[in-house]
Task: structure prediction
Amino acid sequence: MSSRRDFFKYAGMAGGAVAAGAVSRVALAALPEPVSQTGAATMAPLQPATGRPYNPVVTLNGWTLPWRMNQGVKEFHLVAEPVVREMAPGFKAHLWGYNGQSPGPTIEVVEGDRVRVFVTNRLPEHTAVHWHGQRLPNGMDGVTGLTQPAIAPGKTFIYEFVAHRPGTFMYHPHADEMVQMAMGMMGFWVTHPKAPTPLIERVDRDFCFLLSSYDIEPGSYTPKIATMTDFNLWTFNSRIFPGIDSLNVRRGDRVRIRIGNLSMTNHPIHLHGHEFSVTGTDGGPVPKAARWPEVTTDVAVGQMRQIEFIADAEGDWALHCHKSHHTMNAMGHNVSTLIGVDHSGLARKINNLIPDYMVMGERGMADMTEMEMPIPDNTVPMMTGEGPFGSVEMGGMFTVLKVRAGQKPGDYGDPGWFKHPAGAVAREWGAALAEPSRAASAGGQAMPRRDAPAAPAEVRVRKPAGGHGAH
Ligand SMILES: [Cu+2]
Result:
């Protein structure tokens, strides 16, 4: 950091409070000192100490950027730079981001605020920042070559505009976009309403995260930036399950979750146990007559979706992308399907040639969560996460909404696993099974077969013998 002057004090990121009262006139002529973050913990909401009041958001495994008020203008300082992002415990990625992390910090402002963002480029190549979804003067739109010259390495640019429209937005580079977004350059932007409006309800909890994807080979650190579709890491805010924090709420809370997609494909985001409405998009609040109940909403590339629900059902409810490949971590895509194939003799033969060779998936891939398989350094297992009943067998875009009667207002701490009422957990059937009755007809009454049925083609399937663990 080039400027170490003491004009921009902040009282520790954990509290997130900004002591902006002590800013001198001389200091105001200078840049606000950049605030940086090294960890991937979810920071408590940053309560606004200056400027218009608002109800802050919680950025999943992220944080909100402090600001200073300078003669009525809200000033932020973003630093584009290489960062190390812990994607899950035991796995660090070398990315590009803002202010020490990828994604960058969330920027929160209030409708009508005049906002000035200083952007310092500490990348090895030029960049620019596009304020996705905002109404602003064309020259502030951040498209290199089209609306501004690129920000060269070492240079600082100023963006300034009024946040006209309340809503959910993003920021990302519009310079060497494929590389810079594949490297993790993106951030969230929330413009809060300045006055109550019927279309933007007050909520008790307001979470946000971005969807992004990376292709990092097991054992390496840097994403392959040319990958277009076959990514191996699918992330909420550049974190993968089990590294994604749970969303902890109080029973009865009105909960809002804002999701933006800066990956290369769409993500149907699915919530268990509740119905929600999409209350807003990048274009603004959805009129009430246009809302309908959902349990899954597709967030297409470059879109934002803002969902809301009353968290009235206690429990540990999965919240995840419904593309099952997106709830897997690295190594998931080049595995042969061997379900039902008896290859027990084959493994021994191959082992004679390749001692480390491992046969997998004779009964499905769940075995892999239990396998003591050696994996390269700096890699997380493909499907993992210990729950109260065993492995969750998930990875990637998966986390848990924890709804508890006893969660205090404003408490975002993890309440631990849900304690189920007696008799309310799926359990094994203990008695004998009746023989199944099988339908005798071949084609159904509407379209009966004209000819005699052919001899059925037989598929030989190895059925599991005995209990789990027999191999
Ligand atoms: Cu997905």
Notes: The helical segments are 25-28, 177-182, 344-353, 367-370. The pocket of copper (II) ion is lined by residues 234, 267, 321, 323, 326, 397 (CB under 6 Å). The chain has a mean pLDDT of 85.
